[in-house]
Design brief:
The chain is built from 24 helices and no strands. It is mostly helical and 590 residues long. It folds into 3 domains: 189 residues, MFS general substrate transporter like domains (Growth Hormone, Chain: A, Up-down Bundle); 53 residues, no CATH class; 250 residues, Growth Hormone, Chain: A, CATH 1.20.1250. The longest helix is centred in the last third of the chain and has 33 residues. The chain is globular, with a radius of gyration of 25 Å.
């Protein structure tokens, strides 16, 4: 029996036989059409419900009985391998919410030049992204925990409202400082949308259908990331950059209406809501200080500065105090028992986040800076990555129940390793081969993201679904932000420290321009070809390409760490609400 199986058994042990749990109306829960708060989608009610649990979970959960009829039972849908129309309508609002976040994540990159030209803030432009991601990462665990206590629908509505308010404020911002502050507001709202959508799936669907939906959600997110730049280009062509934020408002309204009309939430997870204010404040402070230090040091290259050490000290003290507070809290933001059992999943999420962000950042830079592909080519370089990520997510959702989490994650790490190793071998004469590399990395990314969602949610009791889903996003973003900034610092050092085996003329001109680090900006400027002769640009491109391929090689080596962690992941998927496998088997017997 693996850790997740023991986790589920321990939380079910105090409630008696799981498959004898009655519904609220006194009707046996195995009776089709039994009344009660919504549970799994299906004609037959699951007779495996999560009773109140012992220890840290005692008194925090209520049995979830059957929900309304939905055309196809859980067992029938699982056996057919497809979702019914009613089931898709149930989660349609969450899909639109994920579409909203995916589009916004990429549309901002398209409008940054227009924003800088209008508001004059080139030196702060990177904080349009950094502020958003800092807020999203810090808010996700807190909002996820609140969704366990207050329910999925209220927190999803709050997240949508905050995100829409931030979007409207971004659209009317009059300075770069205001825009960054309002992007932080957007990030807080975004911290609720994706994890709460995953929690909603786990509450309403058995594992046989959950994998397909999680793969579908990840595919929608990837496709929306492709659509974002296209929408941004159209907006800039026919209107102002401000409309890139205003377009979020009708999408958020559609998501809110669909969730309100189509999703029937279950009972509130806790009878008495106890918010861990101290834990929330300490975690937010510590994570914000850590990420601010890493992002700032990555941008300036000053890792040994006093401000960086000071922020890292604040983060370390905050995390130590947070760990102490969480062991005593009645409703901890990140339960220590969850982290003890899911430590390997958390570390794997950190690694996958770093690899994913590295591919998204360095591949376009490699195409434009080393291969002289131009701005258009660098944008299109991400298209095969996102499309193959969509395919990988969909594939993983279909077959993960057959092969298990470990097999899927081994496959993900192998694909990551092959893709990054081939990128490492490309040099500055990559040509079309880079597309094949992107396909390998993209499929590995899609398979890994869905598999880690499964691994984190496996075996969690109902009152931890929200915090489990939010922790996936938390550790992924944390790994991405820290990993990318560390890799960016190494990249700059390798680029600036390239062995100077140049001709005398090239050495003099590059030195006069301020060295390679300064000359690197020329590779991304449309005027670079006019300022310097081709032989000088070729030297700079070779140096930039060499530094970037070394980053790819380091990423390939990191996949070995990911492969070692896989052996500590759960072998199989355990239901989040007792035993969904037993649900299906009981339906078939009935």
């Amino acid at each position: 029996m693996d850790n997740d199986s023991r986790f589920t058994s321990a939380n079910a042990s105090s409630g008696g036989p799981i498959d004898k749990a009655p519904s609220r109306s006194g009707t046996p829960a195995s009776r089709p059409g039994a009344n009660g708060p919504p549970g799994y989608i299906g004609d037959a009610a699951p007779d495996a419900v999560a009773p109140a649990s012992q220890g840290m979970f005692a008194g925090n959960s209520k049995p979830i009985a059957a929900g309304p009829n939905a055309h196809v039972s859980a067992a029938q849908a699982a056996s057919r391998g497809r979702l019914s129309r009613a089931q898709m309508l149930t989660v349609s609002g969450f899909l639109v919410g994920i579409l909203l976040v995916g589009i916004d994540n990429t549309i901002v990159g398209t409008i940054i030049p227009a924003v800088v030209a209008d508001l004059h803030g080139l030196t702060l432009a990177s904080w349009f992204f950094a502020g958003y991601l800092l807020a999203q990462t810090a808010s996700a665990p807190v909002l996820g925990k609140l969704s366990d206590q207050l329910g999925v629908k209220p927190l999803f509505r709050i997240g949508l409202s905050i995100f829409a308010a931030g979007s409207m404020l971004c659209g009317v911002a009059q300075s770069v400082g205001q825009l960054i502050a309002f992007r932080v507001v957007q990030g807080i709202g975004a911290g609720a949308l994706f994890p709460i959508a995953l929690s909603a799936i786990s509450q309403r669907f058995p594992p046989q259908l959950r994998g397909r939906l999680q793969g579908f959600f990840s595919a929608v997110f990837a496709l929306s990331s492709v659509c974002g730049p296209l929408i941004g280009s159209l907006i800039l062509r026919y209107g102002s950059w401000r409309y890139a934020f205003f377009v979020n408002l009708p999408i958020a309204l559609v998501a809110a209406v669909l969730v309100e009309k189509r999703y029937e939430a279950g009972a509130t997870r806790t009878a008495v809501v106890r918010i861990d204010y101290a834990g929330a404040a300490l975690l937010t402070t510590a994570v914000t200080a850590l990420l601010f230090a890493v992002v700032r040091a990555g941008q300036t290259g000053r890792w040994a500065s006093g401000s960086t050490f000071g922020l890292l000290a604040v983060a370390a003290v905050g995390l130590a105090m947070f760990a102490t507070v969480e062991t005593r809290a009645a409703q901890p933001i990140l339960p220590p028992d969850l982290l003890r059992r899911k430590w390997a999943v958390a570390l794997e999420n950190l690694l996958v986040g770093a690899l994913m962000f590295a591919a998204i950042l360095f591949v376009p830079m490699f195409v434009q800076g080393a291969l002289a592909g131009g701005k258009g080519a660098s944008g299109w370089a991400l298209l095969p990555l996102m499309l193959s990520m969509t395919a990988g997510s969909t594939l993983a959702g279909r077959i993960i129940n057959r092969f298990g989490v470990r097999v899927m994650m081994y496959g993900s790490m192998i694909l990551f390793a092959l893709g990054f190793f081939l990128l490492f071998q490309l040099g500055v004469h990559g040509g079309p081969t880079i597309i094949a590399c992107m396909i390998l990395v993209g499929v590995g990314m899609g398979v890994g993201l869905v598999s880690l969602i499964y691994a984190m949610m496996s075996g969690l009791p109902p009152q931890l679904l929200g915090v489990g889903a939010s922790s996936v996003q938390f550790f992924r973003n944390l790994g991405g932000l820290v990993g990318v900034n560390v890799l960016a610092t190494l990249h700059i050092r390798w680029f600036a420290g390239t062995p100077q085996s140049w001709s005398l003329g090239a050495h003099e001109k590059i030195s006069a321009a301020g060295g390679l680090r300064t000359m690197g900006n020329v590779l991304f400027s449309s005027e670079g070809g006019q300022l310097y002769p081709p032989e000088i640009l070729r030297v700079v491109r070779d140096a930039f390409g060499d530094a970037t391929t070394r980053v790819f090689g380091l990423c390939a080596l990191l996949t070995a760490v990911g492969g070692a962690l896989v052996m500590f992941l759960p072998k199989r998927v355990v239901s989040s609400a007792g035993s969904a496998e037993r649900v299906v088997s009981n339906e078939r017997r009935g």
